[in-house]
Specification:
The complex is a heterodimer. Chain A is mostly helical. Chain A is built from 15 helices and no strands. Chain A has helices at about 1-10, 10-30, 50, 60-65, 70-100, 105-115, 120-135, 140-145, 160-185, 190-200, 205-225, 235-240, 250, 255-265, 270-295. By secondary structure, chain B is of the alpha+beta class. In chain B, the strands form five sheets. A five-stranded mixed sheet of chain B has the order 2-1-3-13-6. In chain B, strands 11-7-12 form a three-stranded antiparallel sheet. A three-stranded antiparallel sheet of chain B has the order 8-9-10. Chain B has two domains: about 65-190 and about 355-435, D-Maltodextrin-Binding Protein, domain 2 (3-Layer(aba) Sandwich), CATH 3.40.190.10; about 195-350 and about 465-539, 3-Layer(aba) Sandwich (D-Maltodextrin-Binding Protein, domain 2), CATH 3.40.190.10. Chain B has helices spanning about 1-40, 50-65, 85-100, 115-125, 140-145, 155-160, 165-170, 170-175, 200-205, 215-230, 240-245, 255-260, 280-295, 310-315, 325-340, 375-385, 390-395, 445-460, 480-490, 495, 505-520, 520-539; strands at about 70-80, 105-110, 130-135, 180, 180-185, 185, 195-200, 250, 260-265, 275, 320-325, 345, 365, 405, 410-415, 435-440. Chains A and B meet through helix 1, helix 2, helix 3, helix 4 and helix 14 of A and helix 1, helix 4, helix 5, helix 19 and helix 20 of B.
């Protein structure tokens, strides 16, 4: 005990520096977690979170009873896999291109342009999409008809939507996402490139033999972090682009939008909490599994 | 060692937090217990805080005089946006309240855009307020009651603290507000017709050789004529007009805003409820819609369109708009001002049916369960409801500034820009026995038409009200099935209503299966059970 106090005193500055992070995590990550109990309660205003009566797993039932659980879970995961894989590929590609471009002005301007969509809210993106794809006044259909084709009714054609959603997701995230990889590439020791150049490596060999392997740890860590949200649909995106258009739901309905539709009229706190908990548990398991798999490949790349 | 230290620290803090929560929790639960106790005790109120005031209050109630010695600041939540002169008007109202009840009232607004999300937060976050606007169906009444957010108003409580309201409101108004036999809101009192009508392009009516739209056949004819002419007729399938034209209406509180279970309002002795998918009218409607949508009566994008009801008409993209009479006239005037050649008029597509006024519960006010001044809140509400001076102020603003009195019971607008007439969420206490009517000096053809329609409706009011029309389903016992059904309907329901599916019968069948597996039958059973109980209380 004495030894412990001694150490406490010895490292007091470090501990003090650590304190804000610890407190932040406790207050904003651990304390709210106590709200999980709501998923197992029949919430009422008078009882609040703690005083309301328990009702076991009742709150989870509506999700499975709706008959949509499998479909929306599948959609959520597939979309996220698509977004993570394609998003990472495009972001890395953009980062590599940007570092290979030596014209400073062009580089700065193109990077800013790519960053811009990140600041546009999904509500606006939804309006833009409607003006692009609506059948009466949509830009896309105007071009198609001007070229002599027949209109494509995008909003009644579900199969078109995975591509549309993927496009907007990548378009919106590429500027922000590529910054991480740009930073990672900047961190690569330039002497490696010089050595490669002396050995006669061309630009492609430089990229695939030096750059990509060097930023692999960053890619893996970001990948693992993205995996952590794989059962969470990006509600803003799906709701603003698809809305309540049932015709598209087979291809576009995700867990979050389904839960919103089911609960919007009843304000059921317990069921909302249950859906959130369901997603969190699945995400937690996925992260553990993915981390395990990564550790088999290389222990240094794991998150924890 | 370091790791152990971190662990210890973390544990210590977590334990501390948990202990904190535990205390808070027990405190809250005991508070909850006492509220229910107070509620079942009838007139008396909360235990915490104002115990002394309570005692004097309840004893005073027995004596017939109510103690107002303690000054109280009340807080009320309304829906909408604060107009520029709102505070000035309410300062006037407060002068009256101070004098009569030794209290003042402050108002906060939940805007139209955010009240869906913020309404429940007011209750769950324990916000301290007394009165709140509410209404079954469109303003969270059932949901809030289901979660125990509103104070149950016993007959004795109303009679004691709001004798004026008790005198004005008919028995049936309280029946409409009752959930499981208990009233939680004070409905407004007026004969208002919420009937949807059509604002129609007069030039097109003439072009297609029609003079009016009076029934479903006319609608059909006009819609198809528009489609053939290359203009959209409307912004989707006229579903409400369809079932109402057949003499049916939705059962309040059933899933999808009451559209999944129909009652035959036209036949008050028809005690059946009709499950939407077993009702012949639904399939018939969907087939007709498919035909109309394929003809091009409305855009194939309607499900994604964020257009408001009036957008199509105002921009010239659609030939009609559907809304209540007042809104249709307002927008028709606006469109006519910009395009006089359109000559927009208003038609009643249900002209051949008698009209019944809206339920009194279309607007109303409830008392927060955790309000510390329920009695005074009720008394203040009574003033809003029955004091002509306050009624005028809240509805019209300040006399001489916003409006001018014409005779005893009419008004003329002077300046509507800073305090919209009847547009400050004053609807919860509208009392038509003291409310002023508008005086219009020079009538436009649209005003004439509006007046004519209203007079026709009022002259021929539907007296035979179906008993189920005053019933409101309480889904608490089947909340799981309710949520599942609402989720399951998403893929098929709206596309069917707007004729956007490829195969109508197959889609209806798919919808039926989805709803069945989501537990629609349980909901129907519960509805039947509650209806039986409800009918038993009536006889």
């Amino acid at each position: 005990m004495k030894k412990f106090l001694k150490k406490l005193f010895k490292y007091r500055i470090y501990l003090l520096m650590l304190a804000p992070a610890v407190i932040y995590t406790l207050v904003f990550a651990y304390y709210p977690m106590t709200g999980i109990v709501m998923a197992f309660k029949k919430y009422n205003y008078a009882g609040g979170i703690w005083g309301s009566p328990w009702n076991g797993f009742e709150n989870f039932r509506f999700f499975f009873k709706s008959g949509q659980a499998l479909k929306v879970t599948r959609n959520t995961v597939l979309y996220n896999v698509l977004f993570i894989v394609c998003g990472t590929a495009v972001q890395v590609a953009v980062a590599v291109f940007l570092t290979e471009i030596h014209n400073k002005w062009f580089k700065k301007i193109s990077q800013s342009m790519m960053f811009l969509p990140y600041f546009i809210s999904w509500v606006i993106v939804g309006v833009m999409a409607f003006n692009l794809f609506s059948s009466d006044y949509g830009f896309a259909n105007r071009i198609i008809t001007a070229l002599g084709g027949t209109k494509i009714p995008f909003y009644t054609t579900p199969a078109a939507w995975p591509m549309i959603l993927l496009f907007f997701n990548i378009w919106k995230g590429v500027g922000y996402g590529s910054v991480m990889y740009l930073a990672a590439i900047m961190g690569v020791d330039t002497s490696i490139y010089e050595a490669a150049a002396i050995d006669g490596a061309n630009v492609f060999q430089r990229i695939f033999r030096v750059t990509i392997p060097s930023i692999m740890p960053t890619m893996v860590i970001l990948f693992l972090m993205n995996i952590g949200g794989i059962f969470r649909g990006n509600f803003d995106m799906f709701y603003n682009l698809v809305g309540n258009n049932g015709l598209l739901f087979d291809y576009t309905d995700v867990i979050d939008t389904l839960a919103m539709r089911a609960l919007i009229s009843s304000n059921n706190f317990g069921m909302s909490a249950a859906i959130g908990l369901f997603q969190s548990i699945l995400c937690f398991i996925t992260v553990l599994l993915a981390n395990k798999l990564v550790s088999i490949y290389d222990k240094d790349y794991t998150l924890f | 060692m370091k790791k152990g230290l971190a662990l210890l620290l973390a544990t210590a803090m977590t334990v501390g937090l948990l202990a904190g929560c535990g205390n808070g929790g027990s405190g809250q639960s005991s508070a909850g217990g006492s509220t229910t106790a107070a509620a079942s005790g009838g007139g008396s109120s909360e235990s915490s805080g104002s115990g002394a005031a309570d005692n004097s209050g309840s004893s005073a109630a027995e004596d017939g005089a109510i103690d107002l010695s303690e000054h109280v600041d009340l807080k009320m939540y309304l829906i909408g946006d604060r107009t520029p002169d709102f505070d000035e008007v309410y300062a006037e109202i407060n002068k009256i309240l101070e004098e009569k009840l030794n209290c003042s009232i402050s108002v906060d607004f939940l805007s139209w855009g955010e009240h869906d999300t913020k309404y429940s937060l007011l209750f769950s976050s324990g916000e301290d307020f007394d009165l709140i606007f509410t209404a079954p169906g469109w303003c969270h009444y059932q949901q809030t009651v289901a979660l125990g957010g509103l104070y149950p108003l016993s007959e004795e409580f109303i009679q004691t603290y709001a004798p004026g309201i008790w005198e004005v409101l008919p028995e049936v108004a309280w029946q409409q507000a009752a959930i499981d036999g208990q009233v939680y809101m004070v409905p407004n009192f007026q004969q208002e017709f919420g009937q949807d009508v059509l604002a129609v392009r007069g030039d097109l009516l003439e072009k297609y050789g029609m003079t009016d739209i009076r029934n479903w056949e006319d609608i059909r004819k006009f819609y198809l004529a528009c489609a053939a002419d290359g203009i959209y007729a409307g912004q989707g399938g006229p579903w409400y007009t369809w079932f109402r034209s057949l003499g049916y209406t939705g059962l309040a509180g059933s899933p999808k805003s009451g559209e999944t279970v129909m009652i035959h309002y036209d036949q008050p002795d028809d005690m059946n409820v009709y499950y939407l998918l077993d009702w012949d009218g639904f399939s018939e409607y969907c087939h007709q819609m498919k035909e109309m949508a394929d003809a091009g009566c409305w855009s194939s994008d309607v499900l994604n369109s964020a257009d408001e009801r009036q957008t199509g008409l105002l921009t010239g993209r659609a030939a009609t708009m559907v809304w209540n009479l007042g809104s249709c006239v307002t927008y028709a005037k606006q469109a006519n001002a910009e395009h006089p050649e359109w000559n927009i008029t208003v038609c009643d597509p249900l002209a051949e049916r008698q009209k019944a006024p809206n339920k009194y519960t279309t607007n109303g006010i409830g008392i927060n369960i955790s309000s510390k001044h329920k009695e005074r809140a009720m008394m203040a509400l009574n003033e809003f409801y029955c004091n002509p001076a306050i009624q005028d102020l809240a509805m019209l603003g300040i006399e001489g500034k916003h409006w001018r009195a014409v005779g005893d019971n009419q008004y003329e607008v002077i300046d509507e820009s800073n305090f919209g007439v009847n547009n400050n969420c004053n609807w919860g206490w509208t009392n038509e026995t003291i409310r002023r009517e508008e005086y219009i000096a020079d009538m436009t053809p649209l005003d004439e038409k509006q007046k004519e329609l209203l007079e026709t409706w009022k002259a021929d009011i539907r007296e035979d009200i179906h008993p189920y029309e005053n019933f409101s389903f309480d889904p608490t016992n089947v909340s799981t099935q309710f949520a599942a059904v609402e989720a399951a309907m998403g893929s098929y329901y709206d596309p069917l209503l707007n004729g956007l599916v490829d195969d109508v019968d197959a889609s209806i069948e798919a919808l039926r299966q989805a709803m069945d597996s989501a537990g629609m039958q349980d909901i129907l059973d519960e509805i039947n059970r509650q209806l039986e109980e409800y009918m038993a209380t009536l006889n």
